[in-house]
């Protein structure tokens, strides 16, 4: 029983020591280096990288590119 209490105490202390900072709408985590399956997209407040699963990162399409729309309107 004492061993179980000790294990519970250590687990709770470790959980308090290493908080996880979330970013990108709670889809990413602030880390110094991203894991292999994650992509760095923006910086967190602590200057760490916001590591996000690539499926949550927006992809810029050619239709929404402002340079293309400006060129097409100036040519008219």
Automatic annotation (TrEMBL):
Residues 1-15 form the signal peptide. Residues 22-51 form the Beta-defensin domain. Pfam families: Defensin_beta_2 (PF13841). GO terms for biological process: defense response to bacterium; innate immune response. One of its GO terms (cellular component) is extracellular region. It is found in: Secreted. Keywords: Antibiotic, Antimicrobial, Defensin, Disulfide bond, Secreted, Signal. Belongs to the beta-defensin family. Has antibacterial activity. This is Beta-defensin. It comes from Papio anubis. The gene is DEFB121.
């Amino acid at each position: 029983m004492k061993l179980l209490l000790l294990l519970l105490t250590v687990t709770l202390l470790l959980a308090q020591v290493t908080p996880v900072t979330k970013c990108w709408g709670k889809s990413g985590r602030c880390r110094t280096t991203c894991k292999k399956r994650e992509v760095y997209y923006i910086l967190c407040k602590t200057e760490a990288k916001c590591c996000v699963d690539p499926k949550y990162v927006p992809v810029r399409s050619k239709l929404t590119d402002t340079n293309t729309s400006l060129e097409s309107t100036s040519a008219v």
